[in-house]
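Operator note (shift B, R.M.): manual run for Dehydrogenase requested after the automated queue skipped it. Running by hand, logging everything below so the morning shift can see what happened. Input copied straight from the record, untouched. If output looks odd, do not overwrite the archive copy; leave it for review.
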Amino acid sequence: MLHRNYIGGEWVEGVATNLNINPSNLDDVVGEYASADASQTEAAIAAAHAAFPTWAASSPEVRSDIIDQIGTERLARKNELGRLLSLEEGKTLPEGIGEVVRAGRVFKFFAGEALRLTGDRLASVRSGVDVEIVREPEGVVGLITPWNFPIAIPAWKIAPALAYGNCVVFKPADLVPGSAWALSEIISRAGVPSGVFNLVMGSGSQVGNAIVKSPLVRALSFTGSVPVGRRLAGDLVARGAKIQLEMGGKNPLVVLDDADLKIAVECAVNGAFFSTGQRCTASSRLIVQEGIHDRFVEALKERVAGLKVDNALKPGTDIGPVVSRSQLEQDISYVEIGRKEGAKVVIGGEAIDRETPGHYMTPALLTETTNDMRVNREEIFGPVATVIRVRDYEEAVAVANDTEFGLSSGICTTSLKYAGDFKKRSSAGMVMVNLPTAGVDYHTPFGGRKGSSYGPREQGAYAREFYTAVKIAYTLG
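Run finished. Output pasted below as returned.
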């Protein structure tokens, strides 16, 4: 079966076909998916533009019911859709199912938000004048999503876009079209009018570029690499369009001498290695005070040694494969870069074979690193964590903040004093205390500072800042 693009309410063949390969078993083709070109993308944008006036004027209750229905079906099919996600991305099956559940909850949340959009009424400084402040949809919104969360990230972009009355042109990552197509198929049956939602699969050079360049696209939400995000920002700002960027992190987890060792190790393992380390919120820098350093490293090494790397669908697998051959090569190359810089590889960092051919790698732990090494400056995006030894709390905070990124940070300590101070002084957008740096609630805002994020926050009620425009009306009474 060829899975087609969804444009203007119709399933449309593309100009080429993309094979979706299972990273746990390279002999397994998950499915065939159509790839669109620029002209088909422009047709999708035109369809969204034409549908916008009617959708924007629709009742919030209509939008709420549709979005709630999408969430309900996702939750009902969590096992099936979670398996599909794990097949194409490489997350373990429990992680895949969990992500589908989160996506379903996101739609449920925004079904409520469609009914809760509020405004303000102020007293004017001029006698007899009323001031109303309302929020209106932006128009056609382009959504470009990455491969590492192929259903959760599209959900937290699509759901608020539709809830607030926008029309959508959605481009998923080439590596993971299956989850995107499955979500789009559900949306196509939920009562969304033709043109309101469009799925356009294909390359960034064709589909992505057409979305970015179109004057009909009034806002773009992008999650991906720093270089691409910065280029898109220049293009969108130049033509006066709105842009929201999530671009990555080099997240610190500080472990102080007074930390509960067991909690600290579990936070590090979860944050650094689960989801194969392919999370922008991953704990890639473990900043450890010298009094607990040796015990922490030994305990973490033992814990990592017990992790099972295997097929994502196998029961008991802790870490699935890396998503692609190129990503695997990049991860392993960074381990070698760290070794050449003087780091000690205490465990892992090697490609391994399993029963089925796949992109398998042992999780790597590097010690004796300094914060100026490339492995501590550049985002690796794989199961690779480094340890940086520090003297005291003050040095830990300084090292944690010494990065161009600012997405997530964490601290493990039993001290309320240090926990409270770190929450204030961390330069990250999200701070965790005795919790992994990866893992956030679906109803709270998501985003960082510095080179990690640009524009309004995603998720939760804060999503309205991006997906709506503020209008102020003055009336002489």
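Quick read of the result: The mean pLDDT is 97. The radius of gyration is 23 Å.
Leaving this for review. - R.M.
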